[in-house]
């Protein structure tokens, strides 16, 4: 309806699949700027076998991140992520310089992943039932299937899959530790421009809650906790390095498989005037944008 001019702007509603490709041809009516967001698959560190860091590292190595991005829409939806903090944020680590679980084309490395499974004591894989929760909305099921197929390559082959509409997979499963959700797709965007709004709610051990929990991996790593506290207290001259150290530790704990640093996909009607993309709001600047009633 926005593309046709019936509506002027969409919020929390983006083009996907073939529609995304057609929207990208709208010139100045299509904005594809970076968002301060990271998409990821979390691994619950309290659920076997993900209580073993080598298993988590194996999962990070075997996942085809490029395929997950392709399923979501390709390069228009973002950059393949190699660490937790997104571009433009203090502590961000450029993918060309830091990719601890790198593989050719970010398509996964089965051989290295199998080696880590063997080191972890799971040479023949892990066949216990694991609860895997994701979105039932496109492209969610296809992404879940991609991960299921990748995990089977290292012998993690007994997934109990539940697919729900947003926000039910968050409120009914991810945020409730008692469900023992082993892994799931999630995403996070900054609340304000600071890595404190990423690492502290998502991976700081003392913030694990029995209900409404946002540390879905239930990670409580004392070293990471201390690095986060140090970064919070660092002077401005040392803040970037302090947060980078915390970012490295969080990434190498491997309780996340960072999948994508997101790009916005914003379409406006032909009536929109003076619309430009604002990265902080992940949409057009509402204050300065207007509508020409004549449609000109």
A few lines on this structure:
The protein is an alpha+beta fold.
| Estimated helix fraction | 25-40%
Quote the average pLDDT.
95
Q: What is the N-to-C order of secondary-structure elements (H for helix, E for strand)?
A: HEEHHEHEHEHEHHHEEEEEE
Q: What class, by secondary structure content?
A: alpha+beta
**Low-confidence region ranges:** none
Question: What is the alpha-carbon Rg in Å?
Answer: 20 Å
Compute the separation of the termini in Å: 17 Å
- Broad shape: globular
**In percent terms, what proportion of residues is strand?**
15-25%
Strand order of the largest sheet: 3-7-2-6-4-5
3D architecture notes:
The chain is of the alpha+beta class and about 300 residues long. About 30% of the residues lie in helices and about 20% in strands. It has 9 helices and 12 strands. Strands 3-7-2-6-4-5 form a 6-stranded mixed sheet, sandwiched between helices. The chain has a two-stranded antiparallel sheet with strand order 1-8. The radius of gyration is 20 Å and the shape is globular. The model has no long low-confidence stretch (mean pLDDT about 95).
């Amino acid at each position: 309806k926005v593309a046709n001019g019936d509506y002027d702007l969409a919020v929390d509603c983006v083009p996907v699949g073939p529609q995304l490709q057609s929207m990208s041809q709208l010139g100045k009516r299509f904005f594809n700027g970076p968002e301060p967001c990271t998409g990821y698959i979390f691994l619950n560190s309290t659920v076997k076998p993900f209580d073993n860091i080598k298993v988590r590292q194996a999962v990070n190595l075997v996942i085809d991140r490029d395929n997950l991005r392709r399923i979501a829409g390709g390069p228009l939806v973002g950059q393949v992520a190699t660490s937790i903090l997104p571009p433009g944020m203090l502590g961000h680590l450029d993918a060309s310089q830091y990719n601890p679980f790198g593989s050719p084309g970010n398509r996964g490395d089965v051989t290295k992943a199998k080696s880590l499974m063997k080191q972890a004591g799971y040479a023949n894989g892990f066949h216990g039932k694991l609860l895997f929760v994701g979105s039932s909305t496109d492209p969610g099921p296809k992404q879940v299937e991609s991960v299921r197929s990748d995990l089977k390559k290292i012998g993690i082959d007994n997934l109990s899959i539940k697919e729900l509409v947003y926000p039910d997979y968050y409120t009914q499963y991810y945020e409730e530790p008692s469900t023992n959700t082993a892994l799931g797709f999630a995403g996070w965007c900054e609340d304000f421009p600071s890595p404190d709004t990423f690492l502290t709610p998502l991976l700081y051990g003392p913030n694990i809650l029995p209900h409404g929990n946002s540390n879905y991996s239930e990670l409580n790593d004392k070293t990471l906790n201390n690095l986060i506290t140090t970064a919070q207290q660092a002077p401005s001259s040392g803040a970037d390095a302090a947060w980078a150290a915390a970012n490295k530790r969080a990434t190498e704990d491997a309780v996340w498989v960072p999948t994508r640093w997101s790009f916005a996909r914003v379409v406006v009607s032909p009536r929109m005037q003076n619309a430009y993309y604002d990265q902080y709001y992940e949409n057009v600047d509402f204050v300065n944008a207007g509508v020409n009633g004549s449609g000109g």
